[in-house]
Design goal:
The structure is a single chain. The protein has one domain (about 25-215): Sandwich (Jelly Rolls). A hairpin with a 7-residue loop joins strand 8 (about 140-145) and strand 9. Helix 1 (about 1-20) packs antiparallel against helix 2 (about 215-235). The protein has helices spanning about 1-20, 215-235, and strands spanning about 25-30, 45-50, 60-65, 75, 95-100, 110-115, 125-130, 140-145, 155-160, 165-170, 185-190, 200-210. The chain is α+β, with helices and mostly antiparallel strands and about 240 residues long. The chain starts with a helix and ends with a helix.
Length: about 240
């Protein structure tokens, strides 16, 4: 029986479990390392293609400032981090996206657009963030849209940004985006103070959009493996 299990049942179980365990899928990822540094910074909307992910050829990251008046307020700076770098091996600090000049960045948004029509797993947005200066934007509100951005729904409350340290943040959108051909997730920033200095900034880096299997999926799969092992021991 052990021989049968090794030759027949075990491969079948592995074939069933392996794809599901690998179902955690990177949809799109941005690290800004290949982007040109903005010097001076800009006020115009900026769009970035992903560096990696299953939708690297079609997803987009769009940044929009609430005001277009001078002085220049945001863009890519050479101040990145390895926090939440889930693609590069070894990790590379490189560049980051920066919201500068304190209150001038209030209302600025970062929006990830992608196709969720074939995604039926919970979706998470993770990223590294650092409020460099006390006057940089100090909080964000996550929201999502399933109609191409005509209507956004807030997810949870406002989240505070720690000053002086890079930390990883994760926003869990659950299955709210499942089936949406034109899905969008957005971070809206606020809480900046004063405008006179570019040192009043908050940086964002290593943005990852990921489909995550629910815990009960893992429980079922490992249960199948455990059952197979029990059968193998009893029939041996």
């Amino acid at each position: 029986m052990k021989r049968i299990f090794r030759k027949c049942l075990l491969p079948a179980l592995v074939a069933t479990v392996a794809p599901a365990l690998g179902a955690q899928a990177l949809i799109a990822y941005w690290d800004f390392n290949d982007e040109a540094v903005h010097d001076p910074l800009v006020n115009t909307p900026l769009s970035f293609a992903p560096n990696a992910g299953s939708q690297a050829a079609m997803a987009s990251l769009d940044t929009v400032l609430a005001t277009t008046a001078s002085p220049e307020t945001y863009g890519v700076r050479d101040e990145g981090t390895t926090v939440n770098d889930i693609v590069n091996d070894p990790s590379v600090a490189g560049n980051a996206f920066s919201f500068s000049r304190g209150e001038r960045s209030n209302g600025a948004t970062m929006t990830v657009s992608f196709d969720a029509s074939s995604i039926n797993l919970p979706v998470e947005l993770s990223f590294a963030i650092n409020r460099i200066h006390a006057n940089g934007v100090s909080q964000y509100q996550a929201s999502f849209s399933t109609d191409g951005g005509d209507n956004f729904v807030d997810l949870g409350g406002v989240v505070d940004i720690t000053q002086g340290v890079w930390e990883a943040h994760t926003v869990d959108f659950g299955t709210a985006l499942s089936g949406a051909e034109d899905a969008r997730v957005r971070l809206t920033f606020d809480g900046g103070d004063q405008v006179w200095s570019t040192d009043h900034r908050t940086n964002v880096d290593n943005i990852a959009l990921t489909a995550i299997p629910e815990p009960r999926v893992y429980a079922v799969l490992f249960g199948l493996l455990a059952l197979g092992f029990v059968v193998w021991r009893r029939r041996g």
